[in-house]
Amino acid sequence: MSDLELLTQSLARSVKHWRAVRGFTLDVLAARAGVSRGMLIQIEQARTNPSLGTVVKIGDALGISITTLLDYEKGPNVHIVPAEQTVRLWHTEAGSYNRLLAGTEAPGPLEMWDWRLMPGESSPSDPHPAGTTELLHVTAGELTLTADGVEYRVPAGSSVHFEANVPHVYGNTGEVPMQMIMAVSVPPVS
Q1: pLDDT at residue number 76
Q2: Of 96, 70, 77, which Cα lies nearest the Cα of 18?
Q3: What angle do helix axes 3-22 and 52-62 make, rounded to 10 degrees?
Q4: Strands, DSSP E only, in the chain?
Q5: Tens digit of each residue's pLDDT (9 = 90 or more) over 149-171
Q6: 34-62 per-position pLDDT tens digit
Q7: What SS3 string covers 123-160?
Q8: What distance in Å separates the CA atoms of residue 48 and residue 8, rounded to the nearest whole number?
């Protein structure tokens, strides 16, 4: 079985599990996530590989991290994620990518990401729930962060944090690859 098939099946199990834990019907989760009921059915039946944006919306609606969505079974208090088990959820042919390095619930979803953007590439993100904060540290190149239509330049060695409940875009308008580490904290579902 391929990595993609394993990921699709894990996501199907997790969405069903967490929807049941939250007591959400398909219609309730669809409305909360802004995803069609048909898409949720396809995900829960492992018949589709949804986009990163769709997975983020479902995780946000359920109040859990993407890491938890991909593996809902809890392990010990200390959980080491080997390098080969990090999950690349988005990439381009030019070499841009993001990798989910680790995540936990603390008390809401908390995720750590590794991003690489090649020159001229960008990745837009829909607004996250109110209270969501992103913390980024640029390790190489320069990040062009656009938050709610305002552009910010974040050079290598610098960090930035912002409230991510607005549309935002991670971009590389420079001439060299941009690398950053990002943490995302989402408030728990009330």
Answers
A1: 40
A2: 70
A3: 20
A4: 87-91, 97-105, 109-117, 122-125, 133-140, 142-147, 150-155, 159-163, 168-171, 178-185
A5: 999 999 999 989 899 999 999 99
A6: 999 999 999 999 899 888 889 989 999 99
A7: EEECCCCCCCEEEEEEEECEEEEEECCEEEEEECCCEE
A8: 7
Report the residue count for the chain.
Answer: 190
Cα gap 178→160, rounded to integer Å = 15
pLDDT at 74 over 60: no
Other CB atoms within 10 A of residue 104 CB: 14
> Whole-angstrom Cα distance, residue 145 to residue 29?
30
The sheet with strand 150-155 has its strands ordered as: 122-125, 168-171, 142-147, 150-155
pLDDT in tens, 109-140: 888 899 999 999 999 999 998 888 898 999 99
- Separation between Cα atoms, residue 111 and residue 52, nearest integer Å: 14
How many CB atoms lie under 10 A from the CB of residue 22? 15
Specify burial of residue 39 (Cβ count, 10 A radius: 0-12, 13-18, 19+).
middle
User: Is 48 in contact with 39 (CB distance < 8 Å)?
Assistant: yes
Rounded distance between C-alpha atoms, residue 101 and residue 31, angstroms: 29
pTM: 0.60
